[in-house]
Amino acid sequence: MMEKGVPPSRFLFYLVTVSLFLFIFFSSAFLLQFTASPFTPGEVLKHILINTTSHYLRPDASRDRIETPLSLQTYESLSVEREGEGNGDSDTSEVPVCDPNRAKLQVFMYDLPPEFHFGLLGWRRKSNRTWPSVDNPGDIPPYPGGLNLQHSIEYWLTLDLLSSTTPGIMRPCTVVRVKNSTEADVIFVPFFSSLSYNRYSKVQGKEKVSVDKMLQGKLVEFLRGRDEWRRTRGKDHVIVAHHPNSLLDARKKLGSATFVLADFGRYPKEIANIEKDIIAPYKHVVRTISSRSASFEKRPILAYFQGAIYRKDGGVIRQELYYLLKDEKDVHFAFGSVKGNGVHKAGQGMASSKFCLNIAGDTPSSNRLFDAIVNHCVPVIISDEIELPFEDVLDYSEFCVFVRAADAVKRGFLVKLLRGIGKDKWTRMWTRLKQIVQHFEYQYPSKPGDAVDMIWEAIHRKTSSMRNKLHRNKRYRRSELFAKGN
After folding, report:
1. Average model confidence (pLDDT) for the chain?
2. Quick check: 275 pLDDT over 90?
3. What is the mean pLDDT of residues 107-128?
4. By three-state DSSP, how is residue 232 classified?
5. Domain boundaries along the sequence of the chain
6. Is 240 left (phi over 0), alpha (psi -120 to 50) or beta?
7. What per-residue confidence (pLDDT) applies to 79?
8. Angle at which helices 211-224 and 193-200 pack, to 10 degrees?
9. How many helices (H) and strands (E) does the chain have?
10. Which of 54, 80, 335, 479 could form a disulfide with 444 if both were Cys (CB 3.0 to 4.6 A apart)?
11. Cα–Cα distances in angstroms (integers) from residue 427 to residues 54, 67, 290, 376, 434, in the given order
12. What phi and psi values does residue 295 have, to the nearest 5 degrees?
């Protein structure tokens, strides 16, 4: 019997809600019996309810916020082999390749010779194969560690494209490699330009030009000879040049392409800009800490900076801040490098600090920002010219503090600002950091919402403007051809 005072419409709403709840619970439990999902029915139910009701239950819900997918994990390994595999508990042999019709982005990738990519890592062509077998971890050469790793973006993107057509590899279906360039949204150029610069930019022995410069010349010649490049003048091509000095000789000749960069610090605006190009995060070099990281009271250091202090260009501010902050009792501001276990010590320092200073150096950006994020240390960004990855979908003000350089060098300004951020506000930023940290993780195979997936999503968002430019350029081409009698 209906409870007295309850309107019929509300009673019907309650009945439908309870029925939906029970249906989702038991159907998820049934499905989990036939899948390799590591999550309980309750976890699946929680994820479904949160994602399907959040915008109805929270009128202030941000529509541009990226929610953390339930399936995401934080991976600390720097190698391409995933930790904990090989126990025989799961079978991915039946996992199909991604259906091109389901993918958001279809990508054609040139089969460049290995000297442009994995050959730079010592991989040697086997049986006339251009690529390593990505379903065999033993055939994938590891990327060099240390600071080399921070600019390894093209390595992870190339592996992800190769795996998109390889059965048995679990990965998102955001992007898929296609064999016909006319079917592609964009064309990917698999040149490991950052590695080429880091390892081969100096002339060795009897060489007249460096290997890096030689490869850049061969790449320009190759691209300009391709119908795909000539068809659009390279406007639908994607080239990764994450190290600020990579592709130094070829960048002007290939400037019509979309670049994937760390920042625009060493590029003229006509060659690289935010309208045309993609900003990708550095690969962090410190280990990602647990989500159960130290809270406000357990972080005794107010502000942390360790790195090179004397820099040129916009980085002179580091020296000014050093003399302002070095004697503050709860501020750690010191010189540091990767030598002498420096990376590990920096990670420990960040994990013990409430705020981590990300100050402009030789270029507007540095890996320090992303090391801070994975240590759940609220970044303080003092770099007026910085461009940030995925800022069209991420609101960095939710988990970062921005300070103009002119204000930061005022005596007492920075310390007063940071000490004025109380526990509640800091904890909100700290909580948000833990929610978005997976967007800055590079790994193979890639996972939904990780750095690799986010870069493909960013490229996908650029394709509309790419097509617009291409179509505008065609406005008078047909009439010009008719005028010439063709």
Report:
1. 83
2. yes
3. 94
4. helix
5. 105-279, 296-440
6. beta
7. 34
8. 150
9. 14, 11
10. 80
11. 22, 18, 16, 10, 11
12. -90, -170
How many other C-beta atoms are found inside a 10 Å radius of the C-beta of residue 52?
A: 11
Half-sphere exposure of 104 (CA within 13 A, CB side): 15
Q: Which of 1-5, 18-22, 39-43, 383-387 has the highest mean pLDDT?
A: 383-387
Supply the pLDDT for residue 33: 39
Local structure of 409: helix, strand or coil: coil
Two tokens, residue 389: 């990855």
Q: How far, in Å, CA of 35 to CA of 90, rounded?
A: 9
User: How crowded is the C-beta side of 292, counted as CA atoms within 13 Å?
Assistant: 0
> Cα separation of 351 and 74, whole Å?
16
Q: How many residues appear in the chain?
A: 486
DSSP-assigned states of every residue in 7-24: -HHHHHHHHHHHHHHHHH
Indicate the SS3 state at residue 292.
coil
Q: What is the mean pLDDT of residues 30-49?
A: 39
Q: What six digits make up the tokens of 352?
A: 């013990």
* Per-residue pLDDT, 127: 80
Q: How far apart are CA 326 and CA 275, in angstroms?
A: 40
The percentage of the chain sitting over the pLDDT mark of 70, rounded to a whole number, equals 75
Q: What is the pTM of this model?
A: 0.79
Position with higher pLDDT, 34 vs 108 = 108
Question: Which amino acid appears at position 276 of this protein?
Answer: K
The partner residues of 301 in beta bridges, in order of sequence, read 353
Amino acid, res. 171: R
pLDDT > 80? residue 320: yes
Q: Which pLDDT score, from 0 to 100, does residue 97 have? A: 77
**Sheet bearing 237-240, strands edge to edge:** 175-177, 105-109, 186-189, 237-240, 258-261, 278-279
The sheet with strand 353-359 has its strands ordered as 331-335, 301-307, 353-359, 378-382, 401-402
Q: Tell me the C-alpha distance between 375 and 437, whole Å.
A: 9
Give 188's DSSP letter.
Answer: E
Residue 321, number of CB atoms within 10 A of its CB: 22
Question: Which residues sit opposite 381 in a β-bridge?
Answer: 358, 402
Look at residues 398, 472, 382 and name the one whose alpha carbon lies nearest to residue 433: 398
N- to C-terminal Cα distance for the chain? 83
Per-residue burial over 396-408, b if 16 or more Cβ lie within 10 Å, else e, is: beebbbebebeeb
CA–chain centroid gap for 395, Å, is: 15
The residues facing 240 across adjacent strands are: 260
Range 296-440 has CATH code 3.40.47.10? no
Q: pLDDT at position 8, please?
A: 57
* DSSP helix, strand, coil percent of the chain (3-state; round to 5): 40, 10, 50
Under a CB-based contact definition with an 8 Å cutoff, are residues 295 and 427 in contact?
A: yes
Given a cut of 90, is residue 359 above it in pLDDT?
yes
| C-beta atoms surrounding 384 within 10 Å | 15
